Amino acid sequence: MSQLKAVDYAAASPEVKAVYDEIKQTRQVEDVNNFWKFIAQHPPTLARTWDSLKDVMAPGALDPLIKELLYVAVSVTNNCGYCVASHTAAARRAGMTDEMFGELLAVVGMANETNRLAVGYRVPIDPAFE
Amino acid sequence: MSQLKAVDYAAASPEVKAVYDEIKQTRQVEDVNNFWKFIAQHPPTLARTWDSLKDVMAPGALDPLIKELLYVAVSVTNNCGYCVASHTAAARRAGMTDEMFGELLAVVGMANETNRLAVGYRVPIDPAFE
Amino acid sequence: MSQLKAVDYAAASPEVKAVYDEIKQTRQVEDVNNFWKFIAQHPPTLARTWDSLKDVMAPGALDPLIKELLYVAVSVTNNCGYCVASHTAAARRAGMTDEMFGELLAVVGMANETNRLAVGYRVPIDPAFE
Amino acid sequence: MSQLKAVDYAAASPEVKAVYDEIKQTRQVEDVNNFWKFIAQHPPTLARTWDSLKDVMAPGALDPLIKELLYVAVSVTNNCGYCVASHTAAARRAGMTDEMFGELLAVVGMANETNRLAVGYRVPIDPAFE
Amino acid sequence: MSQLKAVDYAAASPEVKAVYDEIKQTRQVEDVNNFWKFIAQHPPTLARTWDSLKDVMAPGALDPLIKELLYVAVSVTNNCGYCVASHTAAARRAGMTDEMFGELLAVVGMANETNRLAVGYRVPIDPAFE
Amino acid sequence: MSQLKAVDYAAASPEVKAVYDEIKQTRQVEDVNNFWKFIAQHPPTLARTWDSLKDVMAPGALDPLIKELLYVAVSVTNNCGYCVASHTAAARRAGMTDEMFGELLAVVGMANETNRLAVGYRVPIDPAFE
């Protein structure tokens, strides 16, 4: 028996269905992604994660495209294959062009490099940054 | 004897001084940050890193503020104290407000959380994202 | 020629077979997992890792279920696909229920989120925690 | 001017004070930790994080001590100094003994080691774990 | 439409072809690896990364075999599947034997373990190391 | 009361003293580093870690200097401040020159950068590396 279990809409509890419905309506999509179907194995995690993401990713001082770019940057740094795939797609839907994607990964690459140079050379924080 | 060694301007070789001068002129600052003074222990690393950063962080399809926000996101995820301090300061100089900073860290936090949920639930990539 | 090489029981040296036999007897299993068959390419690593794991995972002040939950938490945080799969299975054998698994991942997710908030806001350690 | 800014109770907005009051009452403490005072710079993050943590860390299928042990395991793996300090203290308050702490770190250490062995030897997932 | 896009030699721009040609000549290979074909989606990243790698991996105070061993060590620690596969192959071409590979992974494993013990026990730096 | 506790030689149990004595004799040092004094809070971890490190770091197919370089590379990638400081010192004692250190960090930096490029561009493994 597979240990990988998605909760499909048809088989979902009313509690889970309500979250799926809200995701579908908010994002204007036919079905929810695998991410939601898998975390729905634990309904409180599904509900809490959706509530939090809905708030955090909403337009604010940063617009949704920038927020998706940040999500990709973190997901790449953490090496999360699913997250890179899904948030790259989300960023493209939000307006990310090929050129933006290229620059995004260039920044992420350089940041990961210089982060390690700073650690390896044990650079003390400049007084101006304290 | 301390193992932590900065290369100050006065003691720098002509090769290192030339890089320092270019950084100071490009960024319009009085002196270079500790990061540069420490990696200057290995002059080829100093020159290569500056050349790369200058190109990667220049305005392009993404503007400098967005690039600095991405730098902070990676540095926070990697837990690099020096980098968080220096790039938060750089992002503020590029226009990051308190509200933007709050939203940036909220996105970084959520991305780190959902990255692990995706891994823990072993979520397979949706065909649409391949 | 594949670079991926498992050392199967039949082809194993007496030294490796002895470790396999001990694992099979201790864990009451028919065959050892791929993990052991791959690290057996370097017999000293096989022997040392088994000796260490046997001691560390034995019942003590923490019972084996808790230890497996901790193993899953670390493996998820490190994004190790093999380790998440094998230790989730091990945790289930040790008594982890679906509900426990859901709460485990919820804690792991929140810890990864708040770890980054603490780093991003550069929170100084409270004197009470020193 | 320091870039590190805590929001103390006296200077907090009513919205922030309300969260502080709930934390103090729930945890029966005189004052909130620095973590809360720093993330209070962005009130929505303060409120959302507290709401989530309150739910996730509540007694459930896993008791609070196990949840704190998991928090320490993740924080150590992520190398978050503040989080290791604060959650080690929290785990001790929840009942963690010196012996438990020693075993916890031994498991965390071994998990980090074997995670890398699995990656380095590129171990394929056993069919039984799929 | 697949989101995964390699830039093959035949379809490459003159700018990209020039980098491919230099890689093929320097490394004496028939074709470039997938790594180069994918980052070629952003030509400035291709050119910059090749220029940097060519310099950094050249023989110097450390010989190429040692540099490849270091690359494997970092790639394993970061859990980058592609990088582990490609740099393990590169290290073998540079002279890494099975025994060296076994010892390399043993060191990487132990370093990852003791890194976490140092963090978990919050070990202060010895004055002699400052 | 401080939560940071070193086990000094004078106050150590005979079991811990025996390990300290072996470390001092093997390494020809006057006293053991803080690392050992802190993990000695859990004597089985002290004994097991020393036994493992003694074996893993001994001369073999890789010489001690290369092993220390690998240790630094992992410690920098994991951002472990204590480990970077102590293993940089150990590598210098084993013969690492300033030039080697510069090249080591350059490789570590580039590896961290290209690891993320490979993940971000979702590069599939070349058949030749399987």
TrEMBL record, chains A, B, C, D, E, F:
Residues 44-118 form the Carboxymuconolactone decarboxylase-like domain. InterPro entries: AhpD-like, AhpD_core, CMD-like. Pfam families: CMD. It comes from the Bacteria. PANTHER family: CARBOXYMUCONOLACTONE DECARBOXYLASE-LIKE DOMAIN-CONTAINING PROTEIN (PTHR35446:SF2), SI:CH211-175M2.5 (PTHR35446). This is Carboxymuconolactone decarboxylase family protein.
